[in-house]
Amino acid sequence: MRVSDFDFELPSALIAKRPLVQRDASRLLVLGAGGEEDRSMAELDAYVQPGDIWVLNDTRVIPARLLGRRPSGGRVELLLLEPCDEDSVWKAWGKANKPLKPGQQVEIAPGFHAEILEREGKGLLVRLHAENVQEAIERYGHMPLPPYIDRPDTAEDRARYQTVFARRRGAVAAPTAGLHLTEALMERMRAAGAEFVHLTLHVGPGTFQPVQVDEVERHRMHEESYEVPEVTAERINRGRAEGRRIVAVGTTSLRTLEAAGDSGCVRSGPGRTSIFIYPGYRFRIVDALLTNFHLPRSTLLMLVCAMAGRERVLRAYDHAIRQGYRFYSYGDAMLVDRHGGKTLRCLRSGG
Fold first, then answer.
1. What's the CATH number of domain 65-142, 2.30.42.10, 2.40.50.140, 2.40.10.240, 3.30.110.10?
2. Which CATH class is domain 3-61+157-337?
3. Which of 251, 260, 256 is nearest to 333 (CA)?
4. What is the pTM of this model?
5. Rounded CA gap, 23 and 80, in Å?
6. Residue of 229, 179, 150 whose CA lies nearest to 26
7. Per-residue pLDDT tens for 245-282?
């Protein structure tokens, strides 16, 4: 299978650089049995089947970009990836005019600096020095917007590059499908028969890394940490036994469920996964997926194609481009399933 099989032309004007004023004002493309349906996110409750279990990733994005300077004045950018055994020591990526070396100091703000402990390729191990490291990161860090949003982050991004149900700090990228949900929309979905459960996968920057090989099967995914609460595993396993539909909100929720459910039942507890889902994958847990529109040739697009079929998904993407849908993290959404769209019926009267 060739990576080029997942390529398409996307006009740059369709890349969403900023969020809409209202979260649920985004458009929703439903890939149903009869083809594409153009809807809005505010209508998502019309596609809830009574008994559905919708799975949310409650990770919280940290302001992981630290902008500082060497003692010589040279600019340095650090991207925190994940903490080690103690909160002050982090794995990180670094960017500077000259390579960062162990022992060097990076001044971020008065009373807040980083010390380079180790270097291995692009990766760094850094120790953060501050009276309260977490508070210093929150105060002086910048939101790690994706590289295709080529603008400085703003105060608006602090709120909007975060889901309304974000709880557990640790992600350096948002689980973007969840950005569309509001408390009011979720209440309407509950009234329609949806049950919401949570898990956590701390999204890493590898989600934006391009595939560097020509053959899909040769690609190796980045590794991320996750945790499935016991109550979530119990509800999903019971729901599957009862024939209820499992809907993943976002590719990160889907990857977590399939990694934790590789035996056919979802295991609770912490774990790490580098699962790579592409066409030919046999799904064990998830029936349907709410997701944004993804980069050409990306592993996320391959995952959606595994769920709904490559040709079908690429036709839907062509439709979305012709209809002017907004793409990527701050863009519009798509609802797909692995049953040919047969479960994606609009139940609202007149729908």
1. 2.40.10.240
2. alpha beta
3. 251
4. 0.93
5. 27
6. 179
7. 999 999 999 999 999 999 999 999 999 999 999 999 99
